[in-house]
Specification:
With 409 residues, the chain is an alpha/beta fold. The protein is built from 13 helices and eleven strands. It has helices at residues 22-35, 46-51, 64-68, 94-104, 116-127, 150-171, 186-194, 209-226, 269-282, 285-293, 323-341, 362-365, 373-380; strands at 9-14, 39-42, 60-61, 109-114, 132-136, 174-179, 199-201, 234-239, 307-310, 347-353, 356-361. The strands form two sheets. A seven-stranded mixed β-sheet has the order 3-2-1-4-5-10-11, sandwiched between helices. Strands 7-8-6-9 form a four-stranded parallel β-sheet, with helices on both faces. β4 (109-114), α5 (116-127) and β5 form a beta-alpha-beta unit. α1 (22-35) packs across α11 and α6 packs across α7. The radius of gyration is 24 Å and the shape is elongated. The model has no long low-confidence stretch (mean pLDDT 92).
């Protein structure tokens, strides 16, 4: 918090991974600033741009004309991104350098949109006397608040998984789709549910391959044998943060590479799941009999069903933005400007509910949130496999009165 001091000029930074809704944050902030007699300026390239601000000759001002060209429905960000942790920059004078850059362009505060890593830098900058407000953004949905980009990513994942069923059914394949989300399974969970995926594997639940294999056999074999043309598929959505039996995440190479924030670069979960299932099929005599009964068996060529993994990667965070994320992005961009103008900083916008701007300390907002296992057991009663044998769901009934709040989970 800081004492109330009206803002004249605000710098806008988007940082971390790109996703849907960021341009809506920028547009909402710029429009609100104009209505309040303030100006907003783009600081390009995330925190790298902030560090190098003192070297810039000029900044783009989001006046009425320039703001007209910020398309809220485009994913990504007109402001650009980078993955830079300010505290790790090998420059003992880095904070003075940043302050010099802010003074050079008469910037009174910063609106910063990003996830937990970005938020940790917001906390750092606030502690060094730089007024900042955090607009929550991460398609991983692992903040304590809802974060812009989550709904857009879930919609993309659901569409991709649903589309892959056509090629899966044509070739009688088991399709594995590995998706972003780091150490939390929100995007895999929600995207898989929306696409009618058969199995969803998330970091919060250690994979029991016997449970997955039993579920796969039941649905895959029944679908093909009951089809008049012996055609069917089985879909598995895998979060990139799923762990092996050794409790370690998957990454390329023997030594796990790390990003600029010290997180292991995750890769290979889908391939590992595929290999495990293929090995189990080869050792199962019932699979050989099934292949013969369905007419697919060819000795030495086609002895087990095909299992393919697909990694949509950055496709899920690119292209277009969902209507929900456009609306939410504009809300939190606008709210962040108002909070700065009212002298409030070091906080994260939670939402705007019934016209009330709700916020919380950024240090609390960036605490990682995982998939609630009670939610998992609820969906298990619909016979979705979550990498374990189905847990009993015990209903808790709660009557509500009045308007229900929006929730982030």
């Amino acid at each position: 918090m800081s004492e109330k001091a009206k803002m004249k000029n605000i710098g806008i930074i988007t940082s971390g991974g790109d996703c849907g809704g960021l341009n809506a944050v920028v547009r909402g902030a710029a429009k609100t600033a104009l209505m309040r007699g303030m100006r907003t300026f783009i600081i390009p390239n995330g925190y790298a741009g902030l560090y190098n601000l003192v070297e810039f000759e000029k900044l783009v001002c989001l006046d009425e004309e320039r703001t007209d060209h910020v398309n809220s429905s485009f994913a990504g960000s007109d402001a650009g991104h980078s993955r830079v942790k300010i505290s790790k920059i090998a420059d003992p004078d880095k904070y003075d350098r940043i302050l010099m850059g802010l003074r050079k362009f008469n910037l009174d505060g910063l609106l910063i949109s990003g996830g937990d890593d970005t938020g940790s830098v917001v906390v750092d900058l606030s502690e060094h006397g730089i007024p900042c407000v955090h607009a929550p953004k991460t398609m991983d949905l692992d903040l304590q608040t809802y974060s812009v980009g989550g709904d857009s990513a879930i919609n993309k994942i659901a569409n991709i998984v649903d589309d892959l069923k056509t090629t899966g059914t044509t070739h009688n394949r088991v399709m594995i789709i590995e998706v972003f989300g780091r150490y939390a399974g929100h995007t895999a969970f929600r995207g898989g549910v929306a696409a009618d995926a058969d199995c969803i594997l998330i970091p919060e639940i250690p994979v029991d391959f016997d449970a997955v294999y039993a579920h796969l056999k039941h649905y895959y074999i029944r679908r093909i044998l009951n089809s008049d043309v012996h055609s069917g598929t089985y879909t598995i959505v895998v979060a990139e943060g799923v762990k092996g039996e050794d409790g370690k995440h998957f990454s390329d190479g023997e030594v796990q590479a790390k990003d600029s924030f010290g997180h292991p670069k995750l890769a290979g979960a889908g391939a590992y799941i595929r290999k495990r299932l293929e090995d189990m099929m080869r050792e199962d005599p019932e699979i050989k009999q099934f292949m013969k009964t369905s007419g697919m068996y060819v000795p030495g060529v086609f002895e087990i069903p095909e299992v393919r993994e697909v990694i949509p990667s950055h496709i899920v965070r690119s292209g277009s933005t969902s209507a929900y994320d456009v609306s939410f992005g504009k809300e939190i961009g606008s709210a962040a400007v108002i909070l700065l103008d009212e002298g409030i900083s070091g906080v994260t916008v939670v939402n705007v509910y019934n016209g009330k701007i709700r916020y919380m300390p950024t240090a609390e907002a960036i605490a990682q949130r995982f998939v609630n296992l009670e939610s998992v057991s609820f969906y298990e009663q619909m016979d979705i496999c979550f990498g374990r044998y189905r847990q009993q769901y015990v209903p808790v009934l709660e009557e509500q009165h009045g308007a229900a709040e929006r929730i982030c989970d």
